[in-house]
Amino acid sequence: MRHVDQDRLADLAIGEPAPDKVTAHLESCAQCAAEFEALGKVVSAGRELNETDVLVEPPPHVWEGVARAAGVDPHDLDRAAAFEAGQREIGPKSSQASGPGFRWTLAAAIAGLLAGIGGVVGWEALNEPDGDQSGSIVAQAALDPVAESTASGRAELVDVDGERRLDIDVADLPAADGYLEVWLLAPDVSGMVSLGILPGSTATLAIPDGLDVSAFPVVDVSIEPFDGDPVHSGNSVIRGELQGDQ
Amino acid sequence: MPETTTVADDTADAEIAEAFRHGDDLALARVYRRYASLVHTVALRALNNADEAAEVTQQVFIAAWQSRERYSPAGGTLAGWLMGITRHKIADAWSARERQRRAVDSAKAAYDRSETPASVSLTDRMLLVDELSRLGEPQGRILRLAFYDGLTHAEISEHLALPLGTVKSHIRRSLTHLRGRLEVDDAAR
Asked: How far is CA A89 from CA A62, B14, B17, in A?
């Protein structure tokens, strides 16, 4: 028997409309009905919550008691925090140290590659970019190939009377199914902002007003499949960190 | 497109659980960092007493460490396993109170009611709070609007100025992820 897609069950569980055949199938299929019930349980649990439902940290003496009883050094707690911070820098398999925040699988997929960012060179070494020459360049990045790509390129952050834009210019991009999307990433890939698509080898993209580029200084170009999924594909072709006064 | 945020989270939690099981260096501290607030909050809500909640939290982690080899990832998440220990220690704390006072106040009755299968358990609700805080953004905001404020996908899309498709796909993924967490918790009971 063909079962109902998990996505449709999730829609229905949270009260969004789903096709009639989905509801009909649920009446005759115990497996899908059980899955639907489980999703419904998450939704009812969620709907019982409100803003006051926050976790409360135990007082410090609790850990001290645990460490004493277990025979471990109380300073392990600080070491664990440092260990996890280090893990995040190398490859964020574990990014709980800072509590709530961005947590991307993508981080695991591409963080290792970030270690390879080294392609920052002096702006003088680069050609003048194409496009509008007005405004002042406040930061720039040399873009280095990621993974098996052989692409190269550069990006510059330009400020025109307070309106910022990113000029990007690339060469030797691989042929790929899909389209190219330009992102600004946090250095630890804990967050990212999509700037738009790269239709050819150059693009001029507006930086959203109020975006703190220093928090997302890494320019990244990814190949995105036409799957309707707005999230980064994890398939980056070129990347570099903006250097300057962003 | 692979799974989003949640897989990294699963991997990280699974890695901590594995280190814990083997008694690795720093493993107890890492597990404590990851789950102490969850355990403490459940204890605090069940007992409504700061000293007892602190005591229960301490007991849970000591007991978990002593019996770490009994934890099996096949039986559920480490969070679910810790919740099981937490429930036992809370019950012990209630027994101690009863012995002392020979009286059960209404808070215990409320706690028992919340633990009946008909309603969503305290531990599941707090597990959900924990998971919601770790979803990343904008998933966290989207889910909070859907849950706390009961907004529809379209209303959330409008409220956050995000495309409807983005809202929809984040909710689908997040719900499926959260459902896995709570289901595994059930299996561990």
From this structure: 29, 19, 21
Residue of A nearest to B155 (CA): A16
Strand-pairing partners, residue A142, are A154
List all residues 6 or more positions away from B93 whose beta carbon is below 8 Å from its beta carbon: B43, B47, B52, B55, B56
**Taking CB atoms and an 8 Å limit, are B16 and A94 in contact across chains?**
yes
- Residues recorded for chain A: 246
Contact between chains at A42 and B61 (C-beta distance less than 8 A): no
Find the CB nearest A83 among B26, B62, B152. Answer: B26
What are the residue ranges of helices labelled H in chain B? 5-21, 27-47, 50-66, 78-101, 106-114, 122-132, 139-147, 153-160, 164-188
Cβ distance of B2 and A48 shorter than 8 Å: no
Distances (CA, A) of A224 to A52, A184, A199, A201, A235: 39, 15, 12, 16, 7
B8 contacts A108? CB cut-off 8 A? yes
| Residue where the block lists tokens 């820098």 | A89
DSSP-assigned beta bridge partners for residue A241: A218
pLDDT at B24: 87
Q: Pick from A55, A76, A234: which is nearest to B29 by CB?
A: A76
pTM for the full model? 0.56
Please give the structure tokens belonging to residue B28.
């107890």
Strands (DSSP E) found in chain A: 136-145, 152-160, 163-171, 179-185, 192-198, 202-206, 218-224, 236-241, 243-244
Alpha carbon distance B129, B37 (integer Å): 11
The pair of three-digit structure tokens given for residue B177, joined into one six-digit string: 């992820």
B114-168 confidence digits (pLDDT tens)? 554 444 678 888 999 999 988 888 899 999 999 999 999 999 999 999 999 999 9
CA–CA distance, A53 with A49 (Å, rounded to integer): 6
CA neighbours closer than 13 Å in the CB half-sphere of residue A233: 18
Biggest alpha carbon–alpha carbon distance for chain B? 59
Q: Using the beta-carbon criterion (under 8 Å), do B129 and A54 form an inter-chain contact?
A: yes
Q: Kindly provide the ipTM of the predicted complex, given to two decimals.
A: 0.79
Judging contacts by C-beta atoms under 8 Å, the chain B residues touching residue A106 are: 2, 4, 8
Q: Are A213 and A157 in contact (CB under 8 A)?
A: yes
Spatial neighbors of B88 by CB under 8 A, at least 6 apart, are none
Structure tokens at A78: 């600080």
